[in-house]
Amino acid sequence: MGLIFSRDHKVIARQFLWLGLAFLAVGGAMAIVIRWSLAYPGRAIAGYVVTPSSYTTLFTMHGTIMIFFAVTPILIGAFGNFLIPLQLGARDMSFPTLNMVSFWTQLVASIVAVAAWLVPASANAGWTGYPPLSTPVGTPGIGQTLWTLALILAGASTTMGAVNYITTVLRERAPGMTLMRMPLTIWGLWLTSILNALFVPVLGAAMLLLLSDRLFGTHFFVAGVMVRAGGDPLLYQHLFWIFGHPEVYILILPVWGIVGDLISFFARKPAYGYRMSVISMATVTVLSSLVYGHHLFVAAMTPMLGRAFMVLTLLISAPAMILFLNWMHTLWRGSIRLEVPMLFTLGVLFVFGVGGLTGLFLADIPQDVYLHDTFFVVGHFHLIMAAAVFLGSFAAIYFWFPKMFGRSMSRTLGTIHFAITLPCLVVIFGGMLLLGNAGMQRRLYDPSAYELFRPLRPWNVALTHTAFLLAAAQLLFVWNFFASLLRGKPATDNPWSVGTLEWTHTTTPPGPHNFAEIPTVRHGPHEFNHPQLDGDGDKDWLGQAEKLPGDPE
Amino acid sequence: MTLGLLPLRPLDASADGFRNDALFNVTMLMVTVLFVIVTGILVWSVVMHRKGRHRAQYERGIGRRHLLFTIVITAVIFFGVDGTLLVDSYLDLDQVLWKFPRAEDHPLEIEVLAQQWSWNVRYAGPDGRFNTPDDVVTLDDLHVPVGRAVVVHMKSKDVVHSFYLPNFRVKQDVLPGIETRAWFAAKRAGTYELGCAQLCGVNHYKMRGLVTVESADAFDGWLRTQSAIGKARWDEDDTDAHWGWPWD
Q: How far apart are alpha carbons A469 and A471 in whole angstroms?
């Protein structure tokens, strides 16, 4: 029982990891079936014919599952839980029971989400769930109601986690662990938690109103001549994107943090401009709550609001650029080790670069009018929310696997996994940009219903086949993960030779209360090749709690 | 449209669509240059500074000099790229997208009622007023004359749809409960497609209509004929058919 209803953050982290990885597999399989249908609409795959209705359910549940039940549990649930106490020198989270409840709420939410998918009248209104389509006017049936409920539950779980993370970072740091000595990973997770605490409840509010429309016959979001009701469907879009745009940053901020740390670790150089990076991440966090209107450029927005949101959206590229420059500057004149986590980190830089730059097109209104709701948007946000986020998650898994499970993953398999995954992601999502620019809308069961898109068929077929290759490459990861778990080489306490507390002051895997003795922190997380270490043999790193000659007691 | 295998934007049949395409091309040029430079530096760094070539430099990037360096580069890119984009977009907004034709320009006004999964289109007919017996009402069939500005007034009967004319670079969501508008002018006769760009249910992919662009004379002739047919079939009691709405 101790391992199931555990309040130990490390156990809860692993529970979130298993749950997230399981749903990643489900969401990924859905993506494959969606791609199949786009290339060969109506043709059976493994004896299963995708109909327009099941196609709609598939992309609805693919988006919902990936965002709320795969990425969120892996990045925030698993790595947030695992790393926040370990990297800060704490014995556990501030609220261990709340932490446990958060996981079990997420599990219940996951079951409800699966039910929303598998019931006969399944959820069918897209992951954005715009009303009136998501109300009984457009989607009667139990599935859509369960979908709404699943998001409310998942949101509750995330909010519990967020409150816990925020408090832990503020209250549980080891002596000497000032905010400006925290690993960037913790900064990313902390800023993400703040956004979660502020904006997930907004999603909850929208979902509660929607649930009321569905169950109790209210008309918050229903309007139009047919239903003769005076609700406001646009209100939902505002509420959804007030949450929805920060959500993008909720998912990418932990990755930015991880990337910032790993680049430094594997370039054996201090993270260039640490303070600048922290301020940039904080600035993005603030701005992320002020740009959501760019999702509504074609929805019916007053010109004044449109202009304001356009300027604010463009503004966000400045701090993002500073972050990127700092990453590049960290690499410069480093001594770069191309270990598997570093390969994935460099992959993040590449796809995040493409994803970020394509955002420039969508930030401005005239271009967005043409590109809105086309595959250009799909390619753009997948480059960030799928490619960058999953490459970052893989980097994190390869990097912290030894600490989590006490064994090392295979470097050869990891390198091959990377070498196939990165080009596939670029081809698939880059190809989507081209299809979108050619005018192809999202969410079309059969694009050839339009004559305009018939010449694009070879592209849809090619992208689908690339997606199959991408899926096959993930089997290498699955194999590597389980084989290493069972038979991997036992890992030492600090296999990557870095100075953060989880590596320097805990055993592998960490004991029940993490630290034999809470260390006193004296340095930042990225002290490599410190001048005072010269002539110290092979050791080029300085532990965060290590005492240098001349350091005060 | 494709060039060989490369997907390209659909043929531009509108008077002002070239501006949208030009804006896209300028942006594409800027981000391509940025991308090539950044990727070049990244690859160069990884190759030149890989393990074993030299000891890593201890450089924390703290201090005024480093801050200035980063801020200057960021500012150059930000004001160069984002600035260009903002100015060009504002011009486009003021001169095209939000510059709706005025009444004295005599635009062709059309009402569109979207529903799952088709487009109801209504023309005022010779009397110039909507919801009268001489209206022309079509299904998934939009006719417009070459060279004359067209203003489309839209409402939805049920869920959110999006009025999408890829060949005219036009897209506007259609919502139940409020009226939205879009405008364009056609410059090239022919038949084009009208699509729905917002998920509107299971048969969203079938919500497609045709746009016929024809000469002003041909259009007027079509409108007269259709109006006469419509008038003969006018049924005062069929209130569902009188979905048109007055506006100024």
A: 5
Are the Cβ atoms of B27 and A267 closer than 8 angstroms?
Answer: no
DSSP A333: T
Q: Cα torsion at A507, A260, A410, A78 (round to 10°)?
A: 60
In chain A, which residue's Cα lies nearest the Cα of B177? A224
Q: What are phi and psi of A443, to 5 degrees?
A: 60, 25
Tell me, what's the ipTM?
Answer: 0.96
Q: Environment class of residue A427 by beta-carbon count within 10 Å: exposed (0-12), middle (13-18) or buried (19+)? A: middle
Q: Please state, in angstroms and rounded to a whole number, the distance separating the CA atoms of residues A11 and B72.
A: 46
Residue pointed to by tokens 């480059």:
A383
Give, for all 553 residues of chain A, the pLDDT tens digit. Answer: 567 889 999 999 999 999 999 999 999 999 999 999 999 999 998 889 999 999 999 999 999 999 999 999 999 999 999 999 999 999 999 999 999 999 999 999 999 999 999 999 999 999 999 999 999 989 999 999 999 999 999 999 999 999 999 999 999 999 999 999 999 999 999 999 999 999 999 999 999 999 999 999 899 999 876 666 678 999 999 999 999 999 999 999 999 999 999 999 999 999 999 999 999 999 999 999 999 999 999 998 888 899 999 999 999 999 999 999 999 999 999 999 999 999 999 999 999 999 999 999 999 999 999 999 999 999 999 999 999 999 999 999 999 999 999 999 999 999 999 999 999 999 999 999 999 999 999 999 999 999 999 999 999 999 999 999 999 999 999 999 999 999 999 999 999 999 999 999 999 999 989 999 999 999 999 999 888 886 656 788 999 999 888 777 6
Enter the DSSP assignment of A179: G
Query: Is the distance from CB of A183 to CB of A543 less than 8 angstroms?
Result: no
Q: Which fold has domain B103-234?
A: Immunoglobulin-like (2.60.40)
Sign of CA dihedral B54, B59, B65, B71: positive
Residue A199 distance to chain B (closest CA, Å): 25
Measured CA to CA, the distance from residue A50 to residue B29 in angstroms comes to 40
CA–CA distances in Å: residue A289 to residues A149, A196, A249: 25, 11, 9
* 3-state SS assignment for residue A59: helix
Measuring CA to CA, how many Å separate A522 from each of A156, A174, A500, A547, B235? 37, 10, 11, 7, 87
Q: Are A523 and A516 in contact (CB under 8 A)?
A: no
Q: Please tell me the distance in Å from B80's CA to the nearest CA on chain A.
A: 12
Residue B198 phi, psi (nearest 5): -115, 135
Q: Domain residues of chain B, as ranges? A: 10-51+63-97, 103-234
What is the DSSP code string of A136-147?
TTT--SHHHHHH
Asked if B24 and A367 touch (Cβ cutoff 8 Å), the reply is yes
Question: In Å, how far is A530's CA from the nearest CA of chain B?
Answer: 6
Question: What distance in Å separates the CA atoms of residue A468 and residue A29, rounded to the nearest whole number?
Answer: 10
Among A303, A334, A373, beta carbon nearest to B197: A373
- Supply the pTM of this predicted model: 0.96
Minimal CA separation from B19 to chain A, in Å? 9
Tens of pLDDT, residue by residue over A353-384, are 999 999 999 999 999 999 999 999 999 999 99
Q: Which residues pair with A235 in a beta bridge?
A: none
Q: Which of A60, A34, A38 is nearest to A453 (CA)?
A: A38
Which amino acid, residue A218? T
Nearest to A223 among B31, B49, B176 (CB): B176
Under 8 Å between Cβ of B155 and B225: no
Closest partner residue to A438 among B8, B49, B60, by Cβ? Answer: B8
Cβ of B160 under 8 Å from any chain A Cβ?
Answer: yes
Contact between chains at A455 and B1 (C-beta distance less than 8 A): yes
